[in-house]
Predict the structure.
Amino acid sequence: MTHCSDEALILHHYGEDTTHERHLASCAECDARYRDLASVLQAVNVVQTPARGEHYGIEVWQRIRHQLPEREPWWRAFIDEWQWAAVAAAAVVLVAAGFAVGRLWPALPAESIAVRSEAAV
Amino acid sequence: MEAGEAAAVLARARQGDGDAFRALVELHARAAFGLAYRLTGNERDAEDVVQESFIRAYRRIGRFEARSNFGTWLHRIVVNCAMDALRARHARREERGADSMEELPDVLSSRGPSPEQLAHSAEIRRRVETSMASLTPQERVAFSLRHYEGRSIDDIGRALGVQKSAAKHAVFRAVRKLRTALAPLRRET
């Protein structure tokens, strides 16, 4: 018989995996391990959140109202931080490519330009 | 606040109406504090996280999609702020050594019906808080979201910006550490 792993028992506890129910019903060893796990997780619930009063929201507002920063301009919503980096990288690549093309493109000899100009006239 | 009214308040807040944003703060602050406290386990940090979360929300409200739920959006901001707070606390603890006063959990406000039960529950609480404090920020947030907030592993992965398997293993590690830390207490009972 293959017993449940600890990970499987955790997932079972949180309802993320229901495939072990049958096994747990028939295996005393796994069932005991599961109960042990459940008791630990139950103990963790002893921590209680301190209560906050009805007017807590107003208190928070009073504390932050003078700290509120400038809002982002509307168009900023469409461009995230990583997108800024991509735009900047693309701009650098374009400038570098333009520079390289300008340097490497074979320049026409001056004579051929002159000949073409005469032919045109 | 009814759905229609809430949508109108949100729309006004997105257009820069300070009164509308104040209404959102008043409506969501208690829930934000509850989440922040469960994630950080410390009132002072939770208060800071709530404030920082609303300040971030204000700055970025232009990014908020009107058809989404403001509470869900704010939840994610609170998780991120709590992660930042936990990382900062973790780093301070690494610098100073594990047992500085700052890291002591809030155990003294515990109330119990009798001195024996109080002593026992306070001891359990102290151990739980101490073992929670020993988790890494990611383990603590993943565990808290799964255990206290009932979020699925998928949701946790999205909230933390990690793969589902990473979120799952963060929960596993947290549970393993808590079991180890609480084992002596179980033997005593």
Remarks:
- Chain A touches chain B through 38 residues (CB under 8 Å).
